[in-house]
Amino acid sequence: MRDAAAAVGRALSRMWRLLRIFVLLLLLAVAAYSTLYDRLSTTDWDETLWIGVFPVDADGNAASSRHIAALSQADVVEIERFINDEAHRHGISLERPVRVDLYPEVREKPPERDADANMLSTMWWSLKLRLYARRNSHPAGRAPPQVRIFVLYHDPEFNQAVPHSVGLNKGLVGVVHGFADRSMTRSNNVVVAHEILHTLGASDKYDPETLAPLYPAGYAEPGREPRYPQEFTEIMAGRYAVDAHRFEMPDSLAHVVVGEATALEIRWTRAP
Ligand SMILES: [Zn+2]
Q1: pTM of the predicted model, to two decimals?
Q2: Which of 61, 207, 208, 228 counts the most CB atoms within 10 A of its CB?
Q3: How far apart are CA 157 and CA 96, in angstroms?
Q4: How many CB atoms lie within 10 A of CB 1?
């Protein structure tokens, strides 16, 4: 009798273990599917992709809140125009590939990532960021956009440098650190456009050590003769080469392009 009970116990514990493994595999499959679904549905370019820009006050300084209060839809129009013009140049026929809307200010700040984050803490942070984005992206009376970009405005008088901006393909969310100054609006827009393309699957095209644009993918005109100075910036390189050792950031999207490699990653073009 006791043997039979022990056998049943063993069978139950084995079943329980199998069940836990099954549930875990199921969760992983759902996560993989949702990432793939997001990736494909945001880059099929057969209907307008909706992108929302959400201002956030980073430091509570008077300059930052004044800046946010004065923001209007006109400040993000340039981002939409840039992406749509470049999409058309790469052969997308949809009239309005993306629509970029300014949303009301979000009071809650996004979770911060540790500077020395390991893989596990990065996964945890990315999960918290996705939950944050879900919580804060549908203000009353407005439909939530598909891609959510939170722009934290820092008072330039107290912050000469701001933390790194990020854009996650998983979860379609980006966090941009910008400067709360009217004169910086157009350069902030360059960073917003860069992070939007990250959410759509584009990779960086610069050397993280030297910040040099990678050749040829990070060059707007890799075939230009002579090669330097480059006149335009590839959006995912973020800087253009003045010469072989000097790299500068563009003032606005007026001198930025989406290069061939990036266009392929976000599926504006297909590999031959
Ligand atoms: Zn980047």
Answers
A1: 0.89
A2: 61
A3: 38
A4: 5
